[in-house]
Every structure is written in structure tokens, then in C-alpha cells.
């Protein structure tokens, strides 16, 4: 039942059917009020210069669009880099240094799944979770970091930064803001970004199936277990008609849930994402396969403006 609700909400926000469109039109007054609040915040915010290059990786729609793998790809070659994010799904509150120059300091319950994935993927970076991004930036400076990446920082209007927006390959079929549609900010705000990267043109996802760190083939009987936003996007990389178990985004798996799944699917392998695996690792599942996602950037991409920003503000 929960899986059906998750998929219904995804369809309603991104690709609504006739009846879902009627609901979205009924909710338009709330969307207009929401947009009004956004414009007020943007107009009244004064940008703070923290004296350090700040690069925001964001998107205009709700849910995943590749922010984490893009951040990994862009940050991996930068020295003394720090990634700051809110840390959705964590049990903690406040500021925590998840990793310091590659050394992991907390567990996934404190960091949240995305922060832990960044920490394990960026071997020399510092990762901080903080609801207050300004506080996080000041902490990064205190720790000696020279460049900051903000995960999902486009709406932080009070921070002087270089804004990169990711544009999905399959865009929503309606252009409304929430709750009538999938946009968190008006679609016209793409023009306000310093750089827009379109999936399928500027970058593409490359997925390799791995088991125990080595390339592998999925068994004939496999279930997809995941707790990410828009889970159906994973299906293009997997066999047709694969069994699926979807939880809400950032869900923390429990032992009872895993035991129930293992009991029902005794003869099945389990395939999951890297982000999910940082939460599943503690269960020591034997027959688990990882969707190892990498981002391939287009050779035609022009990063001159980004490089100029880094050189000017470093």
C-alpha cells in the first residue's frame, strides 16, 4: 500500500493523469501563495560574502536529480574542499562534522544517507551536515577548507555563491509549483542560475552492477529495494519486470522490515543504490548487489565561468 502511495504522488507531481490534473488545478491558489512567499524572500534577502568560493548544486523540482553524484564528480579533484548539506533522514539536529579530510567521524544515523555517501565517495574531502548553511560555511573555514559545495543550496538567497542547477532529462508535464506540481521554484528561475546542466545533454548517468566491490550480473530472481525519491527512474538500468520494494525518500530501514523482506523473497538477490546501501550495510546481507552510479560529463561542457569564479574568490 505504501509503495502505491509513493508512486501515486510521484505521478501526480511529475506526470499527472486527467484526474490528478484536476486536483492540481484545485490546489493552484496554494501554489500562487507559495510563489508569492518565494518572491518576497528572494527580493528581501541580502547576500553575505563569506570570503570563500561557495558552489551550490541544486534543482528546481522536488526529489532527486543527480545532485549527489554531480557534487562528487565536480568536487573529487578539488583540494581542501568541503561539502555542506542539510542531512535529510538523520536522527540528529544541529551541526556535525561527518568526515574531516576523508576521516569519517559519525555513523549514518547522525549524518543521514546522502552525507555518508559523500563521505565514503570523497576520500579527501570534509563533509558537514547543518540546517544552518551559514553556520556550516563558517565551520568549514575554521577547519581550513578552501572551497565549499552546498548541496541543494539554490534557495539560500542570503549566501553569495555560484549556482549550478540540474535539469532533468524527462521534465514534468505541468509547470506548476508545489502543491500543484513538482517545481519548488518557478521554472523561469533556470535563468537565474550561473550554469544549468541538462541530463542527457550535459551529463548522463552510467550504472554498473557490483557485488562485493566487483562487477557482477544480477541473478534471475532479483528485487529492487530502495528508499530514494522518484524510484521508477532506476528501472531503466535494470531488467524488465523486476520485483520492487519502494520506501519513502531517506527512510531508515529497520531489522523487522529487512527480516520480513528476506522471509518473503528467500531465493532472491537484492539490488539497491549506493545511497541505500550505507543504511543497509549494518544488516550484513549476503546476496546484495549495488547500482554503482557514475556521472559522465559531456566533453562539450564549458566550465570557464566556474573556473573564473574559483580563481577570483580563492
From TrEMBL:
GO cellular component: plasma membrane
Transmembrane segments: 22-40
Keywords: ATP-binding, Kinase, Lipid A biosynthesis, Lipid biosynthesis, Lipid metabolism, Membrane, Nucleotide-binding, Transferase, Transmembrane, Transmembrane helix
InterPro entries listed in its UniProt record: LpxK
Annotated positions binding ATP: 61-68
Coiled coil region boundaries: none
Reaction(s) the record says it catalyses: a lipid A disaccharide + ATP = a lipid IVA + ADP + H(+)
Protein EC: 2.7.1.130
Pfam family, one: LpxK
Pathway assigned to this chain's UniProt record: Glycolipid biosynthesis; lipid IV(A) biosynthesis; lipid IV(A) from (3R)-3-hydroxytetradecanoyl-[acyl-carrier-protein] and UDP-N-acetyl-alpha-D-glucosamine: step 6/6
GO molecular function: ATP binding; lipid-A 4'-kinase activity
GO aspect biological process, one term: lipopolysaccharide core region biosynthetic process
Organism superkingdom: Bacteria
Family of the protein in this entry: Belongs to the LpxK family.
Record HAMAP family: LpxK
Function: Transfers the gamma-phosphate of ATP to the 4'-position of a tetraacyldisaccharide 1-phosphate intermediate (termed DS-1-P) to form tetraacyldisaccharide 1,4'-bis-phosphate (lipid IVA).
Protein name as annotated: Tetraacyldisaccharide 4'-kinase
The organism of origin for this protein: Aliarcobacter cryaerophilus ATCC 43158
Gene it is expressed from: lpxK
Amino acid at each position: 500500500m505504501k509503495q502505491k502511495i509513493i508512486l501515486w504522488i510521484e505521478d501526480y507531481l511529475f506526470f499527472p493523469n486527467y484526474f490528478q490534473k484536476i486536483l492540481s488545478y484545485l490546489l493552484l491558489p496554494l501554489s500562487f501563495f507559495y510563489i508569492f512567499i518565494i518572491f518576497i524572500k528572494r527580493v528581501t534577502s541580502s547576500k553575505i560574502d563569506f570570503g570563500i568560493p561557495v558552489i551550490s548544486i541544486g534543482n528546481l523540482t522536488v526529489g532527486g536529480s543527480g545532485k549527489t553524484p554531480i557534487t562528487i564528480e565536480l568536487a573529487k579533484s578539488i583540494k581542501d574542499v568541503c561539502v555542506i548539506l542539510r542531512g535529510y533522514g538523520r536522527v540528529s539536529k544541529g551541526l556535525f562534522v561527518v568526515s574531516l579530510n576523508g576521516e569519517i567521524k559519525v555513523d549514518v544515523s547522525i549524518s543521514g544517507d546522502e552525507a555518508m555517501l559523500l563521505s565514503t565517495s570523497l576520500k579527501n574531502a570534509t563533509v558537514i551536515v547543518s540546517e544552518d548553511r551559514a553556520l556550516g560555511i563558517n565551520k568549514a573555514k575554521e577547519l581550513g577548507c578552501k572551497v565549499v559545495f552546498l548541496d541543494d543550496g539554490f534557495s539560500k538567497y542570503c549566501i553569495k555563491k555560484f549556482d549550478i542547477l540540474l535539469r532533468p532529462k524527462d521534465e514534468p508535464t505541468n509547470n506548476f509549483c508545489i502543491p500543484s506540481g513538482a517545481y519548488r521554484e518557478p521554472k523561469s528561475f533556470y535563468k537565474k542560475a550561473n550554469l544549468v546542466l541538462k541530463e542527457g545533454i550535459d551529463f548522463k548517468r552510467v550504472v554498473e552492477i557490483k557485488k562485493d566491490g566487483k562487477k557482477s550480473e544480477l541473478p534471475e530472481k532479483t528485487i529492487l529495494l530502495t528508499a530514494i525519491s522518484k524510484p521508477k527512474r532506476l528501472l531503466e538500468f535494470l531488467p524488465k519486470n523486476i520485483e520492487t520494494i519502494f520506501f519513502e525518500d531517506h527512510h531508515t530501514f529497520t531489522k523487522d522490515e529487512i527480516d520480513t523482506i528476506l522471509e518473503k523473497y528467500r531465493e532472491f538477490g537484492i539490488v539497491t543504490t549506493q545511497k541505500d546501501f550505507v543504511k543497509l550495510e549494518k544488516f550484513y546481507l549476503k546476496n546484495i548487489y549495488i547500482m554503482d552510479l557514475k556521472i559522465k560529463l559531456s566533453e562539450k561542457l564549458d566550465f570557464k565561468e566556474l573556473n573564473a569564479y574559483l580563481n577570483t574568490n580563492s
